[in-house]
Please model this.
Amino acid sequence: MSIFRFLRKIRDSPLSGSMNTTSPLQRSPGQSATTPAHPPIPASGRPRRVQEPFPYNLTLTERHLHCVWADYRLRPALLKTTRGEELQILHPGEWNHGAGPDFRNAEWQVGGRRVQGDVEVHLHPMDWVHHGHQQDPGYREVRLHVTYFHGELPLGTLPPGCEEVSLKRDLDHTPHFFFENIDVSAYPWEKDRAPTGLRTWFQSHDEASGTRLLEAAGLERLRRKTLQMLNLIRSVGPDQALYQILMRGLGYSRNAETAEQLAVHLPFSRLLHVSHGNPVAMYTALLGSSGLLPHDEGDQGPSGIPPWFPLRRLWDLWWRMQEMVGDSVCKRSDWHLDQCRPGNHPARRFWAAAVWFQHGQPPSTVWSPRPQEEAPVWIRRSLRHLQTTPPPVAESGSKIVGPDRSAALFVNAVLPWWLATSPTPDPPDWMKHLPVEPMNGRSKRAALSFLGRDAHPRMYKGALHRQGLLQLAEDYGL
Model:
């Protein structure tokens, strides 16, 4: 490329408007050679937003700021709010890995008063609006909005009493601080590491010994789940017990308690009686009893009901069976629906239960091994039954319950129920065929806390090994 073509390319580039390319003959009277030319203002009259480049070619993310906020060695000792008041952090809060604010129950001192509340961390102040936190009730307890770049949101955008703090100025004046020195994968597990004894044991033993320990912990977890299931079976019977635990699994972690409460107040025998084994009627009974059946067709979108079910048809069925079922046992406010993905909405997951128990099949018939059926065949058949697809009239072919969720439901519900109700075969017959439950936030934290960052993933690739990680996390309070 010739030098003239290179200069022409720079002149015609979009960034040339922000550079001082004004020649002496083009300067206005009184403008010196060192005075930068102002960038052109668009026809709308509003100046363009200038994005400040970040040094060292590092992609700064909110994860970096989370690490800074959580680690007192990186966080500036004294901060200032956008109103100029000094702010001292007494406790950064509990790092939240789920939905909601980034840090909960933080504590700080500002203007001579002690404040406690949640903390939300962003790169830019307007990210609060862009992420939709203003309309999310899960962020009402946020009392401190921390950003990297300076800025101030309009009055009324943040919850009442929420302070704004920017970190850029204080971090720029902190000696020897560089974002590229932060290993984001080491937080928060390296900072909040597990008890030294167990971690030292894993580091002082070979990989085979560590794998055997995880396997033993996994068997202990299954033993405890089986005992809990056995106590529940003695109280409510085998069919109702499995029905309750499966409904709890459909609620996921945030709605597990409410989903199980629904199964208690709408037992399987009554559900079967009012629906006569019809899956649509069964789905309607679950929706009506849960309080998630909307009263208006305009509410069908955000309510989570799949679009292939006309609301009028559901209400026609609910009016007939409402006297037999009774009033709704749950309210819509009992469900945690904020930041709930459409695919994980309880109203959508209920269709899986209706498909599982259609034609009046009790759980003991659906998930019990057939005569002379080998363990691998029974496990594959149970997983296929747990994986639920929408009806043929649906436009989307995405599964209501996919492979990962079906594996979790089998290991945490069907397997303990089977161990509690059937003679247990020789463990090697079924242990090596168990589906592997995907790693979640808790198991990942346990792996990094107990095994360290350098541990090979093959140590916890099996189903029992991952159950063992969860058991260790429960025993050691992670």
Strands lie at 79-80, 86-91, 94-95, 103-110, 113-122, 142-147, 163-166. The two ends are 60 Å apart (CA to CA).
